[in-house]
Structures are given as structure tokens and as C-alpha cells.
Amino acid sequence: MRQRALTLKMVAEEKLFTSENRAREILTAHGIFPIDYGVGTYDRLRWLESAVDQMLLVMHAQAQPQPKKPRVPKPSAPRISLADMSPADVYNLTTSQRVQ
What we know:
The longest helix is centred in the middle third of the chain and has 15 residues, at 49-63. The chain has helices at residues 8-16, 20-29, 49-63, 87-95, and strands at residues 5-6, 35-36, 45-48. By secondary structure, the chain is mainly alpha-helical. Helix 1 (8-16) packs across helix 2 (20-29). It has a three-stranded antiparallel beta sheet with strand order 1-3-2. The chain is built from four helices and three strands.
């Protein structure tokens, strides 16, 4: 089965909906290069339709929003309660002068 070969004008108008120059830039940027069939019916450069369609699928996938990375919570400072302190520590805490 022979694949359909598209001219630059067909790619620009039917697939990318842009100008021919911009279509050539997009195709080249994605590594899709034309095929030269030589003199005859296919006188101009052609691009394979399957390669152009694959490029469109890749461009669409890249344009989708990416999921955000989960937020890592900050480690909290350890909580100290009076139940965890020795009687001497509680006495020193309650009898020492505090700056106000």
C-alpha cells in the first residue's frame, strides 16, 4: 500500500492551517523532511501524510497541561509538653524570670 504524499501547500492548508513558510519551519523543527520523487507527476517536494499526522499527535500531547508535582510538607518542629519534661525542668521553667 502506497502512502499519500502531500505538497507543502496541502500540509499548510489542510493539516496545519497556517502559511507555507510557517508549515515548513514546523515540519523541519520536528524532524520531518520532504521526499523528492524527481521529475514527473510528483514534480515538487512531498511530505508523507502519516509522518505529518504523527507530528500533529505529538504536538497535541505536548500542548496538554502537565500534572503538578505533589507538594512535600515541611517538617514541623517537635512539640514539647509539660508531660515530657522532668520535674526539675518544669520547676526551672516556672520559677525563672522571663523577659517581658
